[in-house]
Design a protein that fits this description.
This protein has six helices and 13 strands. With 218 residues, the protein is of the alpha/beta class. The chain has a six-stranded mixed sheet. A four-stranded antiparallel sheet has the order 8-9-7-10. A hairpin with a 2-residue loop joins strand 12 (204-209) and strand 13. It starts with a helix and ends with a strand. Bound molecules: ribose-5-phosphate. The site of ribose-5-phosphate has 18 residues, from helix 2 and helix 4.
Length: 218
């Protein structure tokens, strides 16, 4: 099975969790497969909240109504991919730059369903550079503070987030305590959010493997 076939398999499996109401939808190639699969059952949901402009556009192309998060209450589920995930369901996200809106929609959802192919499962987070969204004028200051935390930040060249901010990708981290690091980075003035989803990790992981979709629960 190819990596794309594994992504499609977990995307289809996640649709079973979208039974009714409004669905929170993530960003990225795996989330895109979820949107395509969700479109086939769109009659049973009331719409979706998108975690990025790209996701909103894809949902609309499929005829799925996109709702403003401020006009809806708590969502039943949020479905999204990850760049890395552990068996404890802590994640690095934000490879596609959508981390802040993803974190907001996830925070408003009862259940976070992570969909990923098996290449994303790791023992320790940090091989994938950790994305940190920063207010542009704070870029250099935040970078110096991230060096103090043991990382090597690199500006994502030519990239602006949907919120008009910059991304520093932090290399060289071996994240043995993701909850503490997530908190420490959030405390740096000028940081909007960081790609560690550990304080609020996933509740369910649907992992695409050669032998089928495996389910992990918190
Ligand atoms: O900002 C992007 C998101 O956090 C994605 O969920 C993450 O990068 C995984 O994307 P993909 O499914 O394309 O590997």
């Amino acid at each position: 099975m190819t990596q794309d076939e594994m992504k499609q398999a977990v995307a289809r499996a996640a649709v079973d969790y979208a039974r009714s109401g409004i669905v929170g939808v993530g960003t990225g190639s795996t989330a895109n497969y979820f949107i395509d699969a969700l479109a086939e059952v769109k009659g049973r949901i009331d719409g979706a909240v998108a975690s990025s402009e790209a996701t909103a556009a894809r949902l609309k192309r499929h005829g799925i109504q996109v709702l403003d998060l401020n006009s809806v209450g708590e969502l039943e589920i949020y479905v999204d991919g990850a760049d890395e995930i552990t068996e404890h369901l802590a994640m690095i996200k934000g490879g596609g730059g959508a981390l802040t809106r993803e974190k907001i929609v996830a925070a408003c959802s009862k259940q976070f369903i992570c969909i990923a192919d098996e290449s994303k499962l790791v023992g320790v987070l940090g091989t994938f550079p950790l994305p940190v969204e920063v207010i542009p004028m704070a870029r250099s200051y935040v970078a110096r503070e991230l060096v103090k935390l043991g990382g090597q930040p690199r500006l994502r060249e030519g990239y602006t987030t949907d919120n008009g901010n910059l991304i520093l990708d932090v290399h060289g981290l071996s994240i043995v305590d993701p909850v503490s690091l997530e908190t420490a980075i959030n405390l740096i003035v000028g940081v909007v959010s960081n790609g560690l989803f550990a304080r609020r990790g996933a509740d369910v992981l649907l992992l695409g493997t050669e032998s089928g979709v495996k389910t992990y629960k918190r």
